[in-house]
Amino acid sequence: MTDTSDGWSRVREELMFSIVVDRPGDPGVMNYRELPDPIVGAGELLVEVAASGVNFIDVYQRKGTYDVPVPFVPGREGAGTVRACGTGVNGVSSGDTVAWASGVLGSYSTLAVIPADRAVCVPQGMAMDTAAASLLQGMTAHYLTHSTYVVRPGDSVLVHAAAGGTGLLLVQMVKMRGGRVIGTVSTPEKERLAREAGADEVIPYEGFDRTVRELTNGDGVPVVYDGVGRATVDGSLRSLRTRGLLVLYGAASGPVPPVDPMRLRAKGLFITRPTLIPAYLHDREELLWRATSVLGWVSSNEIRVCIGGRYPLADACRAHQDLEGRASSGKLLLIP
Predict the structure, then answer these.
(1) How does DSSP classify residue 257?
(2) Distance (Å, whole) CA 305 – CA 173
(3) H or E element at residue 19
(4) Which of 62, 238, 261, 297 could form a disulfide with 302 if both were Cys (CB 3.0 to 4.6 A apart)?
(5) For strand 221-226 and strand 240-248, is the pairing parallel, antiparallel, or unpaired?
(6) How many whole angstroms separate alpha carbon 82 and alpha carbon 257?
(7) pTM assigned to the model
(8) Is residue 1 part of a domain?
């Protein structure tokens, strides 16, 4: 790396700190540590991280549920200022602000190397913590409502964890598309947040499938967006109407056990387990469609992002504890 610009020189004079996972385990396995300066390669950006998104996929990787070679620096989402560009990078310059939600790890850090083709420019005037809070969960809500099951006007939709980071965005996008939202929550405060986001009906988890039947005149809903997993999957199946679709996009309560296909037979039900990457970010064109849609809606206040907590980078352990313990609402961020 031979860039001698003032910006790069300032970065070199600073210390780089990251969260490092040396072995799978509970939040205590994450350590705040100084690391060598990263090297930016061809087609890559060196970014000074302003905010890193905390997501359940980070938890799964830390626990070893998703196999990641150790040691590793967690985090796949963030926003910050470009400090250097590798060879072959076009359309981005040092000093630009970018956001990313790529499959590349390393965002729990003061500096990160990001593939240029996974980064998008932050709209002018948007705060970088807002950009970091919007992209991964926003694009998740986008593909769920615009691709996995295309919500139609008048559809009644069940959204689990309706006051979570993704849940609040799902509520708003279903409403944008003309749907009716039935949301599950666990506390009165989360009920308030879900209603403020536009949920039509907000119900507790206990007996939710019976309540859904009552709210739909016994028919059930055409789709359930379920990021909770083990604790809700059975009730989610019972909440579906004939030929309904259960979309298992997460497993906050634990992995879903195998489902006997014969359970689906009587009503012709469907189950899918989608992921944003690579299935719904197939190429650069699809990334730009989803990212510019989400950031545009946030910038114009058509979609509101709820930041539920900001933690110093060194407090990543506490952020994970709050996320896993369902002690938070909205999006959690690490601020280096």
Answers:
(1) P
(2) 12
(3) strand 17-21
(4) 297
(5) parallel
(6) 43
(7) 0.91
(8) no
Q: Is residue 86 part of a domain?
A: yes
Mean pLDDT value across residues 290-309 = 96
Q: Helix/strand/coil (H, E, C) string of 113-182? A: EEEHHHEEECCCCCCHHHHHHHHHHHHHHHHHHHHHCCCCCCCEEEECCCCEHHHHHHHHHHHHCCCEEE
pLDDT digits (tens, 9 = 90+) for 226-274: 999 999 999 999 999 999 999 999 998 999 999 999 999 999 999 999 9
- So what's the pLDDT on residue 329? 80
Instruction: Decide the pairing of beta strands 97-101 and 180-185.
Output: unpaired
Residues for the chain: how many in total? 336
Same-domain status, 46 and 100:
yes
CA distance 167 to 83: 34
- Domain of 205: which CATH number? 3.40.50.720
Task: Give the pLDDT mean for 135-150.
Answer: 97
Q: Annotate 246-270 with b (16+ C-beta within 10 A) or e (fewer).
A: bbbbbbbbeebeeeeeeebeeeebe
177 lies in some domain: yes
Counting the structural domains of the chain, the total is: 2
Q: pLDDT category, 14, cuts 50, 70, 90?
A: low
Range of the domain at 253: 153-274
Nearest alpha carbon to residue 21 among 74, 81, 57, 59: 74
Does residue 90 sit within a domain? yes
CATH number at residue 304: 3.90.180.10
